Amino acid sequence: MKKSLFSCSLLLIACIFSTTVNAQTNIQKAQRDINSISFTDDKGSSHSFTSEEYDSVRVLTEINTGVKVYIEDEYSYDFIAHDLNIEEPADDTNGNANRNSRSPYYNPAKKMWKLEWPHIKENSSQSWLLKVSDGMDSYSVEWDNSKIANRFTCYQMYDPIYNWNVSRTDDFQEDSELPAATRSRLSDYSGSGFSRGHLCPAADRRYSTAMVKQTCLLSNMQPQYQNHNGGQWATLEGYVRNWAQNYDTLYVVKAATIDDVKIDGVTQTGLRTEKCNNRLLVPKYFYMALLGYKKASNTYTAVGIWTYHFSNSESQRPVEYMSIDALEERTGIDFFCNLPDDIENAVEATYTSSDW
Question: CA 20 to 30 Å from 337, out of 32, 110, 128, 220?
Fold first, then answer.
């Protein structure tokens, strides 16, 4: 599990994982890898490590720059670093042709290289948000300013970030990181008959009060009928928390349809006819894309989950489980694009029901 790697409360800037010699290439490609790191410590001594020598490296910043080097997950070295030099691998077109770093809108400060990120929508109407708390990345958002809507929220579930240390307290707020004219507002929901439906739920971030509060930003919401929000969707959220216990890391994308969708080869609207207080789009479907990673076997497994957003006067429809490829066909979104292509193609082609 990741517990030993996340015991430090400093801000995580980069984390690179590898295990055995046989698994090292895939792990390093799947994560944000580096070839080597070199620096001078606060005593004036020089240090250099290559990817063959460490299990993982973390670069941390608060007052100073710190480097923590883990050796075979058994012990680590800590340094205060100066003259830091990180060598990244050459761009490998054959290894990952569709990763986010190839987009002209790529922003490394938002950590779009992480595995939970879908491929970003490449136009100037999008805003990308990264919420950080307690030294950990809590969740990320792609926001469509032209539609005043969340396109997706993505995040990771691992020990300790999913631990329940605090109670849930609701403190819904507008997200000041978004332009005032194109953010959702508290008034959009007031008296609308719609719930403020979390995508990254507060229950997934009860590690700290600060994390819970971040999940209550309206950029992490979609208008939901309460029958769906508190029923079928809430049940699925609970399943995700249970499934997270089975993996070292569970990579999560949660979203709702704000564009057209393609179901059984037929293109149709992804929206309900009504709007939330005549301003916010109301999605017709909510869905999840999940990618589980087990370090011991160095394996990934994935599933797509699809729900109809039924109104308070409608009956619910069965939840649909499908491959990621099938979910991509419906949504037009490229999930888990930062995986190496060979892994991505294999894991997205099918799903194993016994894993979920």
Answer: 220
Q: State the Cα–Cα distance between residues 70 and 127, nearest whole angstrom.
A: 35
* Residue written as token pair 């308070």: 312
- Cα radius of gyration rounded to whole Å, the chain: 21
Q: Which residues contact 129 (CB under 8 A, 6 or more apart)?
A: 110, 140, 141, 143, 175, 177, 178, 219
Spatial CB neighbours of 118, under 8 Å, sequence gap ≥ 6: 142, 152, 154, 253, 289, 333, 334, 335, 336, 337
Q: Do residues 141 and 252 lie in contact, with contact meaning Cβ atoms separated by under 8 Å? A: no
Q: Is 247 left (phi over 0), alpha (psi -120 to 50) or beta?
A: beta
